[in-house]
Every structure is written in structure tokens, then in C-alpha cells.
Write a structure and sequence with these properties.
The complex is a heterodimer of chains A (about 525) and B (about 240). With about 525 residues, chain A is of the alpha/beta class. Chain A has helices at about 15-40, 55-65, 70-80, 85-95, 105-110, 120-125, 135-140, 160-165, 220-235, 240-270, 285-295, 315-330, 345-355, 360-365, 375-385, 425-435, 455, 475-485, 490-520, 525-535; strands spanning about 305-310, 335-340, 370-375, 420-425, 445-450, 465-470. In chain A, strands 3-2-1-4-5-6 form a six-stranded parallel beta sheet, with helices on both faces. The two termini of chain A are about 60 Å apart. With about 240 residues, chain B is mostly helical. Helices cover about 75% and strands about 5% of the residues of chain B. Chain B is built from seven helices and two strands, in the order H-H-H-H-H-H-E-E-H. Chain B has a two-stranded antiparallel sheet with strand order 1-2. Classes of the chains: A alpha/beta (about 525), B mainly alpha (about 240). The interface between A and B is large, with 67 and 48 residues.
């Protein structure tokens, strides 16, 4: 049922609320009867005994009462009237001046007290529950800050500490209506005073957060770039986790399988000391035969420059190859002179000599020369090739190597009987070839890793020829040993394992290619089955 | 107390064996121990290079001469020593962003010299000799001699070699020719002739890349064999192994 109907709104209240109202009215009637019986003419709104207030508070009230002129109070009231909500102002206008402060009994009746006022305001109020309903039921009656009818109280003295605690400008009481008054303190030294503490903490003033637009204002060109970038990211995005896991497991098994096959194919010939694999035929590798011939015609004591550009990672592969070439050089009693543009080069050369050729007279007596590390990269290399004696060498501060009898006849680089570039990478070998192309008509000889061979091989056929011979990889080591007639050596020892391992690699590549071809020929599974498997 | 050389050798041997096994364990997948060993290798290599540079270059060629100069016992030319010290200080200025500009001339000097040497070397040592080698195949004097001598088989081989080299060179160059004629609003298109040559060139490029890949594979196989032999020798040193 709506409150807009002509019926008494009290009829619409629930039973429990009507019972509560009735009980409150009964209590109110009882108290007024008892007050009438006592003969006191106190106002119904009069509040508890002033004796309950402390002395200092009574003094303040008294001072305030004395200092306030009636005209000032009226002006203040008028001023405060502007601050009233519109609804209250409308109510004030509608009511007669004498009705502005309704009696207490009418307050309890709620919307009924507004029957003589504006209709719209009445309807608006009729939709609301009685204003003092919750106050009456939940809190005791409010104590006003002061009363006009209170007898004067002897002023008391505040203790010093309390005086210090109290604010300097004591808030003035205002004459705003109770509806406008904020909550007053109900206990402590500020009991009964309103506007001292904020009734509503600021945290209760909840406002809707302002809404800002999250849309970027971009140009069409920027949009195209963003779309292209998004597409790029989507393309490089990895497969879903399930898919990655599904693919990773067989891949790991395949990796282990390949490693096992390779390891076993290498280990088996080494354990059985097999020497069944046929070594390469020299007639198919004339570049290796050239190196052999160049070394084989060296006179005893000929200075040979060895550029030892070997990385530690490939020292294992280079060791058999370099060993057999060095053995040939030492056999020809060549004076070996080492230099390197890599920091680890001199140390690796020294290690090879001490491990493999410790018994050789040249190594045992130390007749070889270490020029050491040539710092400065390509510029230093060019400087060394152009004028070896003026190059800044790392060993120059210890002992000038050019003063040794071995290097005494060497003035220029082409004074060396042979320049041998031992390189594990194509870049180092190419640097030596390129920088010496116009200064060394005799060219160089190369001893390189298998990975550098394809790139350096082209210099064997260049015109003018800049590389006169090349030995590369384990195959070169086995071939060189065969040229020297060696039946034992690292090249021979490793050759069977190398051949078996190479065969296994070729077999796995063929099988892998065949498997890939078969997979392509296999009809694709239906999309539904694919989705089900992915799920 | 100095450690015995034999003991040090044994420690080095077993450390190398363990590190080799950990490195080979990458076949079963990546794991923290493998990564630790990897970082160890990188750190050792970098540390060794720095130590060599300091001991063999910086100290003997810059610091010691400066100290000798201060002590008045230097045999080096003061001007040369000043240039070394000045350029080194300017290069060190690169360490701080505030003073980095001071090091720019030295960096420019290094980069300029390096580039000039690289380009000059490539032209003189690679490009011109390669052009000469490619052109030398079409020297008809060798073919004339073979034909006059009645070596017909060799004559055919010379022609075949020349044809292959010609085809490989032209088709590979065509593969890297990206010029295309404009067709109005349609996208530019290469000519069919260039497209066909580029397709042939892609075959030669694939063969060249396969050769490079096989070289890397063979080098790795050689290194693996050397490590397996090393492990085998180390295992023979274990107590109880015959």
C-alpha cells in the first residue's frame, strides 16, 4: 500500500512498529502526568539537571549566555537559515511562525505534523519513516549545550592540564535546528556540545570515483603499426603449454637416442682398437700433399713461423692434426717461431709441445721461439706482417726474441722459410691470408679445423694463389700420417671412430629425412580428433 | 706448503673428467649443473684473456715504462710514452657517461683503422683473387692446347667445369638481385628469367651452406672423439680397472 493514499499512514505501519509506538506514547504520557503532578512548569524539551554538568562547563555556558545579544542571535539565526536544506526551508515557509518549533508530541507523529503545510512536502515526507524513529529507539534523548532557563552556576576553576588541552577558540553555539545540527559529543569534557567534533567522519563521505576514458587517441598510421606489431607477437608466440609438453617429451627421447647412437658408434671402435677403416687416398687431396711437400723440402734450421690461432674449444679436434704436422717439422729440424693473435694461443701451443713432443730435442732444449700474444687485432696483424721487428710483442719486455740466433736472419716476413697458419676458425685464417696477400708472394700454408676448411678452400684456387696448401680436420690428420708412412698416431687412432661416427650421422640424417617424408605422406587427422587430443 | 706437481696433475685430470661428463650430460636436457659448468668455462676464458692482456700488454707496455719514467730510469721516448698514456686515458674516459665523449676520438681511430684494413684486405686478398680465379676458368688457351694434343676428355672436362662455374656464379648473383619492374598499382614483380636463375642459384647456395654445416658437424665429431678418448684414459686410471 502506498503512503500517498488518503488513509492514515499509521495504518500502514507493521504491527511491531505500531506496538512500539504505542508503548512509547504511553511512557510519554506517564512522564508528563508525573511532571504535572510535581507542579513544575518545565518545558517538555527540558533536559536533565544542570547539576550533572561539571563546574567549568557551567561557567562556559554562563559566559556564553551573557555575551550573546538578542539581535545578534536573531541575525545568526537568519544567516543560518540560508544554510538549511531546501526541503527544510520549504517546511519553514509553509508553517506559521508559531508552528516552526512543533511540540514534542507532534514530532512523534511523523508526517502527520505536516498536514497543514505544502502538499508536495507532505507527500515527500510521507514516503519516509518518522525522522526521530531511530533516534528514539536507539539513543537516549540528546542533551542541549545550554538552556535559557538554567540557573546560574558558580563558576569553577579548570585544572591547568585541562585548560591546556581545550581548544583556544571555543566553538560558538548556533541556533540551527536540530535536524541541521551535527552530532554532539555524548561523553567526556565535550559532552553536550555540538559542532566540536565532526559528526560524519570524512571517510563516510563516499563518492563515486570519477570515470576517465581508457581509450587511446591514435592516428590511423599508429593503429596500423600496432596491428602489425600485435600480429608479429602472435606469430612468435610459443605453442600452448599442453602442445609444448606434448612435443617436448618425444624430442627429449629423440635427443637421448641420437646421443646414445653417436656415443656408441664412437666408443665401440675405440674400445676394440679397430683399425679397419681405410684412410683417405692422397691423390684426392692435393692440397694436403702440397703442405707435406713444402715441409719435406725444408732445410735443417729453417725458420718457420707458426701462427697458432686455436680456440680452446676446438683444441681437441686440432690436436691430432697439429701433432702430425709439428712432428714432421721437428723431424726436419725446423726452427719453430710461434705467434698468436688470441690470448690463449701461446699457452695452447706450449701445452701441445710439452705434452706431445717433450722428448723432442728441440722442445727439450727450448730451441723454439715464442713471440707470444700479438694484441691489437687486425691492425697489429697488419703491422706485424709489414714489419715484424717493429711490432709490439708481449714477450719483448722480457727478452727481445729478435736478438736470438734463430731470428737473426729474419728481417721481413718473407724471410721465413714457411708461414703456417694453424687456425680453428675461418676468420682467423682469412685475416692472415688477406693481410699478407700483397706482401707474401710465396703465400701461406694452412692447418685448419674441419669447420674452417670450406671457407678457406677457395683461396687454394684464387689467382694469384694466396693459400698454397691446406690440411684440415681429422681426415687431414689421417691423410698426413699416411703420407708420412705412420701406422700409429692420433690420426690413425681416431680415424675408425671418426668413420663410424660419420656413418652413424649419415644414417640418422637419412632416416630422419625418410621419417619426415613419411609423415608428410600420412593423411592428416580430422580436426575434431586433433582438438580432442589437445584437450 | 706447496702442492706436489703430481697431485696437482691428478686433481686437474679428475676435474677435467667431471666437467666433461657434465657437459656431455646436456644430451639428456638442460640442467643447472650444466649451466654452472658453462658459466665456469666462460668465466675462466674471460678471466684468462683479461689476465694475459694485463700481464703481457698493459703492465709491460704502459705501467712499467711510466713507473720507470717517474723513477728516472726509463729508456723509452717520452713522446711515445705520452701518446700511449694519453690514448689510454682517453679510452678509459669511455667508462663514465659524463666523460665518454672524450674517448670518441680514440674509438674512432680504432674503428676507422679496423674498417680500412678489413676492406682493403678483403679487396686485395679475397675479391680480386676470386674474380681472377673465376675468370681464369674461361681461359681458352688451355682448351686449345687440350684439343691440339688430342686430349678430348680433358677438353670436355674444361668446358664442363667452366659451365658449372659460370652457372653457379651467375645464378647465385641473380638470387641476390631484388630489382623488379614497376607494374602500376600492382606489386612489382621480378622477371621470369631472373626468377629462374635465382631458383638455380638457391640450389648452389644450399650446397654451400650444407658444406659449411657439414664442416661444423665434422669438427664437433672430432672434438667428441678426443673427449671420449680422454674419458677412456681417465677411467683406466681408476683403482681396480685393468
Amino acid at each position: 500500500m502506498s503512503y500517498h493514499s488518503a488513509q492514515n499512514p499509521e495504518d500502514d505501519l507493521p504491527d511491531w512498529l505500531r506496538a512500539l509506538r504505542k508503548r512509547q506514547e504511553q511512557e510519554s504520557t506517564d512522564s508528563s502526568e508525573s511532571e504535572d503532578a510535581s507542579g513544575d512548569s518545565t518545558d517538555p524539551a527540558e533536559e536533565p539537571e544542570p547539576a550533572q554538568d561539571p563546574d567549568w562547563l557551567s561557567e562556559i555556558r554562563l559566559r556564553y549566555q551573557r555575551g550573546k545579544e538578542p539581535a545578534e542571535a536573531a541575525a545568526e539565526e537568519g544567516h543560518l537559515d540560508d544554510t538549511k536544506p531546501r526541503r527544510l526551508r520549504a517546511m519553514g515557509n509553509a508553517l506559521a511562525p508559531g508552528e516552526l518549533e512543533p511540540p514534542a508530541d507532534q514530532e512523534d507523529s511523523g508526517p502527520a505534523r505536516l498536514r497543514g503545510g505544502d502538499k508536495s512536502v507532505q507527500q515527500e515526507e510521507a514516503q519516509l519513516p518518522p525522522e526521530n524513529f531511530f533516534e528514539e529507539s536507539a539513543t537516549p534523548s540528546r542533551t542541549p549545550a545550554f538552556s535559557e532557563d538554567e540557573p546560574s552556576i558558580t563558576p569553577g576553576e579548570l585544572p591547568g592540564w585541562l585548560q591546556a588541552l581545550r581548544p583556544g577558540d571555543f566553538p560558538k553555539e548556533d541556533s540551527r535546528s536540530e535536524e541541521m545540527l551535527p552530532g554532539s559529543a555524548e561523553g567526556g569534557p565535550l559532552a553536550g556540545l555540538s559542532d566540536v567534533l565532526p559528526a560524519d567522519p570524512s571517510i563516510t563521505q563516499v563518492e563515486t570515483a570519477p570515470v576517465f576514458s581508457s581509450r587511446l587517441e591514435i592516428t590511423e598510421n599508429q593503429g596500423l603499426h600496432a596491428a602489425a606489431f600485435t600480429k608479429l607477437l602472435r606469430e612468435v608466440e610459443g605453442p600452448p603449454e599442453d602442445e609444448a609438453r606434448r612435443v617436448a617429451r618425444p624430442k627429449r627421447v629423440l635427443n637421448i637416442g641420437i646421443a646414445a647412437v653417436l656415443f656408441l658408434s664412437v666408443l665401440f671402435p675405440l674400445l676394440t682398437r679397430s683399425q679397419s677403416a681405410v684412410r683417405p687416398d692422397p691423390q684426392f687431396f692435393p692440397e694436403t700433399t702440397s703442405v707435406y711437400s713444402m715441409i719435406d723440402v725444408l732445410p735443417a734450421g729453417a725458420p718457420v713461423l707458426v701462427a697458432f690461432e686455436v680456440q680452446p674449444a676446438l683444441f681437441g679436434e686440432m690436436a691430432p692434426l697439429v701433432s702430425v704436422v709439428f712432428a714432421h717439422l721437428l723431424e726436419r729440424q725446423a726452427n719453430l717461431v710461434f705467434i698468436s693473435t688470441r690470448p690463449a694461443g701461446p699457452a695452447l701451443a706450449e701445452r701441445l709441445l710439452q705434452v706431445q713432443f717433450a722428448a723432442s730435442p728441440a722442445v727439450a732444449t727450448g730451441t723454439y721461439t715464442q713471440l707470444g700474444y700479438l694484441s691489437g687485432g687486425m691492425a697489429a696483424l697488419r703491422s706485424f706482417i709489414a714489419d715484424p721487428r717493429s711490432a709490439v710483442l708481449s714477450t719483448a719486455s722480457v727478452d727481445d726474441p729478435w736478438q736470438s740466433p734463430t731470428l737473426e736472419p729474419v728481417r721481413q716476413l718473407f724471410d721465413f722459410a714457411l708461414i703456417l697458419v694453424v687456425s680453428s676458425s675461418a676468420e682467423d685464417g682469412r685475416a692472415w691470408i688477406e693481410q699478407s696477400a700483397d706482401l707474401l708472394p710465396g703465400g701461406l700454408a694452412g692447418v685448419t679445423s674441419a669447420q674452417a676448411s670450406p671457407l678457406l678452400r677457395v683461396y687454394l684456387h684464387s689467382k694469384p694463389q694466396t693459400l698454397h696448401g691446406l690440411v684440415s680436420g681429422l681426415q687431414g690428420a689421417a691423410l698426413y700420417e699416411r703420407l708420412r708412412g705412420q701406422e700409429t698416431g692420433l690420426g690413425r687412432t681416431y680415424w675408425d671412430a671418426y668413420s663410424y661416427g660419420l656413418g652413424a650421422i649419415v644414417l640418422m640424417i637419412l632416416l630422419g629425412g625418410l621419417y619426415g617424408r613419411l609423415i608428410k605422406l600420412k593423411p592428416e587427422k580430422p580436426a575434431a580428433a586433433e582438438v580432442q587430443r589437445g584437450a | 706448503m706447496a702442492l706436489d706437481a703430481e697431485l696437482l696433475s691428478q686433481i686437474g685430470l679428475w676435474a677435467a673428467a667431471v666437467l666433461t661428463l657434465v657437459t656431455l650430460s646436456y644430451a639428456i636436457g638442460d640442467h643447472p649443473i650444466f649451466r654452472t659448468v658453462l658459466y665456469l668455462f666462460i668465466g675462466v676464458a674471460a678471466g684468462y684473456a683479461a689476465a694475459v692482456a694485463l700481464q703481457d700488454v698493459v703492465l709491460p707496455h704502459l705501467v712499467y715504462p711510466l713507473l720507470d719514467e717517474i723513477a728516472g730510469t726509463s729508456s723509452m721516448d717520452v713522446m711515445e710514452l705520452g701518446v700511449r698514456a694519453g690514448l689510454s686515458l682517453l679510452l678509459l674516459a669511455k667508462l663514465s657517461p659524463r666523460t665518454a665523449r672524450l674517448g670518441n676520438p680514440v674509438t674512432a681511430l680504432l674503428a676507422g683503422i679496423g674498417a680500412a684494413l678489413a676492406i682493403g684486405g678483403a679487396v686485395q686478398g679475397t675479391i680480386l683473387p676470386q674474380i681472377g680465379a673465376a675468370a681464369g676458368i674461361f681461359d681458352v688457351s688451355a682448351l686449345d692446347l687440350a684439343l691440339q694434343g688430342g686430349y678430348y676428355g680433358e677438353s670436355i672436362q674444361i668446358i664442363f667445369d667452366g659451365s658449372i662455374v659460370l652457372l653457379a656464379t651467375v645464378s647465385t648473383l641473380a638470387y641476390f638481385h631484388f630489382g623488379a619492374a614497376s607494374r602500376g598499382k600492382q606489386e612489382p614483380l621480378r622477371s621470369i628469367f631472373i626468377d629462374a636463375l635465382a631458383w638455380v642459384g638457391s640450389i648452389f647456395i644450399a650446397i654451400a651452406l650444407a658444406a659449411l654445416f657439414s664442416g661444423v658437424l665434422l669438427a664437433a665429431l672430432g672434438a667428441l672423439i678426443e673427449r671420449v678418448v680422454f674419458l677412456q684414459d681417465a677411467a683406466l686410471l681408476l683403482p681396480g680397472v685393468p
